[in-house]
Amino acid sequence: MFVKPAETIAWRISDERVPYPAAVAEMEARASRIADGRARELVWLLEHPPLYTAGTSAKNEDLLAPTRFPVFETGRGGQFTYHGPGQRVGYVMIDLRKRGNDVRRFVRDLEEWLIQTLATFNIRGERREGRIGIWVARKGGREDKVAALGIRVRRGITFHGVSLNVDPDLEHFSGIVPCGIQGHGVTSLADLGLTATMADVDVALRAAFETVFSATIDEPADAEAQLCPM
Fold it and tell me: CB within 8 A of 32, min separation 6: which ones?
């Protein structure tokens, strides 16, 4: 676990769906302010309208339905992912310079954050060697992906983050090969038989984040919570 920083990390939840370009602009601006010491670290929970994103390792052949939803190239690591309603996206903007500049440990802790969140709902999320994301074992030896992650680090500050499938339209994932991984499915809390609300998931995410990152978090001030212009 990371060493607890001296200051609190801001925790923001957006109730309305945030367009992807606006979210990226806000993350980049916030990361720059954090690097300059002009803003607190931030975890931002939100939902996007339906869209596909292409990470730095994305392959064109993995975009199976290029005209179905908007497609955005992004600077995060990884391949193609889907974002949309019913999926909780968590963007994490923290200063690795205060935490040993250990990117691998940061990724490991993001995975642990998701695993502990799922455990709140009695779901066993697991890592798989060579497969990015968090996986759930199903009957008959099948394994489905329930959460994804992809990050970028600039000037020692992280941005982008994780996504957890709460109750999205799983058919929307059929337009891509998620993260370039063939032969496995995608699942969600609802698909696993849970009726957890997004608010329930947010509570679990917050508790797990505080534990895994040894962090003290609070709500941002009104001025700090303003988004960049759309």
Answer: 154, 155, 157
d(CA 94, CA 9): 8
Q: What is the dihedral of CA 203, 15, 75, 70, to 10 degrees?
A: 130
* Tens digits of residue pLDDT in 76-94: 877 888 999 999 999 999 9
- CA 219 to chain CA centroid, nearest Å: 19
Candidate list 179, 205, 212, 215, residue with the active-site label: 179
pLDDT at position 225 is: 52
Phi, psi of 61 (to 5 degrees): -70, -15
Q: 9-110+149-181+196-218 domain in CATH 3.60.15.10?
A: no
What is the pLDDT at residue 224? 58
Are 19 and 230 contacting, i.e. CB atoms less than 8 angstroms apart?
yes
> Which residues are paired to 63 by β-bridges?
176
> Taking Cα atoms as reference points, which of 229, 168, 158, 157 lies closest to residue 198?
168
Question: What confidence category does residue 226 fall into, taking pLDDT thresholds of 50, 70 and 90?
Answer: low
SS3 of 126, please? strand
pTM of the model: 0.90
Higher-pLDDT residue of 176 and 102 is 102
Residue 228 falls in the annotated catalytic set: no
CA atoms of 106 and 84, how far apart (whole Å): 25
For 179, the 3-state DSSP assignment is: helix
